[in-house]
């Protein structure tokens, strides 16, 4: 399983580690606990969680920030936000990403199924109607 | 044979299909009843471990059973010695579980994680502080400055970013909370500034998602990641 360290990838996709790690955290750390029950050993899972934590307050970070600032042109203004268009689109994307990664994809998929379906249907409808339009235009041309 | 428990549902819940649980081969899911409640259970594998497929199976059972109404999801990995212990546990907490199920009816969890777009937030904090602006200009003019100057400048910037993280975390919570029935803060991690779970009524889901969209549009330096609808893992406790 690949878990993208939160610090190296955040800006890349707006999703970073996608829905995969989020679902893990909820399934493992939340939910009802019943005292009378024995809990399954979670060895291995803890390691994964530690990997995700990155130490921010370090000389490395200071240098990185300094270098990044050095590249900043304050007059030019920040880059335009590439993630503006659609939030639901992002959720669908993270479902699709999880699918290709193959790790813990099912959960993310299940959750985003509704969104994906809605998204696909909307896309089909769109392309369907434009096809119809095109067909009717052609017909008109024939006539 | 010990019993693995996935979640708790009202006794009149009909399960839509035979559901596969954890284990290899997957153990079939059955119910153990007590009063008006059932526990969604299966036999526990001999040595259950937190394997990926079992985590997914756990999630799958809770989501499938939850399609028709509320389920109190158990945290992954709860094993009872036998069905009788499960029934006794249901009986002991019967009323509080039932009350909780009623409270969760028609609501789902949405997990919202927020981090900064690095370039955008650096721009924001440097531009907002006259002293940082001056230092930034001086250092650019000097081709970046010495190693020590870089570290000193970077540390100041890191502090400003941390401050901005706190400000934005409060902003996210304040902005979205009115659209949710409840909110819970998740564990903090470096690399993100907020990890919040919201309990959202289905009728208000669009409103909630619209509020997230608006937040994003108004704050170009924020990156939100929304996961949901999820079983209400973060809202199983009373309160």
Radius of gyration of chain A (Å): 23 Å
The 3D shape of chain A can be described as elongated
Structural class of chain B: alpha+beta
N-end to C-end Cα span of chain A: 59 Å
How can the largest sheet of chain A be summarized? none
For the record, the count of structural domains of chain B works out to 2
Could you say what the CATH topology of the largest domain in chain B is called? Alpha-Beta Plaits
Strand content of chain A: under 5%
Largest interface in this structure: A-B, 73 and 84 residues
Keywords (chain A): Gas vesicle
Family (chain A): Belongs to the gas vesicle GvpA family.
GO cellular component, one term (chain A): gas vesicle shell
Protein name (chain A): Gas vesicle protein A
Describe the structure.
The complex is a heterodimer of chains A (143) and B (239). Chain A is mostly helical and 143 residues long. Chain A has one domain (10-142). Chain A has helices at 10-13, 18-29, 45-52, 59-70, 87-101, 105-142; one strand at 38-39. With 239 residues, chain B is of the alpha+beta class. Chain B folds into two domains: 3-105, no CATH class; 108-235, Alpha-Beta Plaits. Chain B has helices at 52-65, 83-92, 94-104, 118-128, 130-141, 147-176, 205-218, and strands at 3-10, 30-34, 37-43, 72-73, 78-80, 107-116, 182-185, 194-201, 222-230. In chain B, the strands form two sheets. In chain B, strands 1, 2, 3, 4 and 5 form a five-stranded antiparallel β-sheet that branches. A four-stranded antiparallel β-sheet of chain B has the order 7-8-6-9. In chain B, α4 (118-128) crosses α5, α4 packs across α6 and α5 runs antiparallel to α6. The longest helix of chain B is centred in the last third of the chain and has 30 residues, at 147-176. Chain B is elongated. The model of chain B has no long low-confidence stretch (mean pLDDT 92). The chains are: A mainly alpha (143), B alpha+beta (239). At the A-B interface, α2, β1, α4, α5 and α6 of A face β1, α1, β4, β5 and β6 of B. β1 of chain A pairs antiparallel with β5 (78-80) of chain B, so a sheet runs across the interface. Chain B: This is Gas vesicle protein. Chain B: Keywords: Gas vesicle. Chain B: It is found in: Gas vesicle.
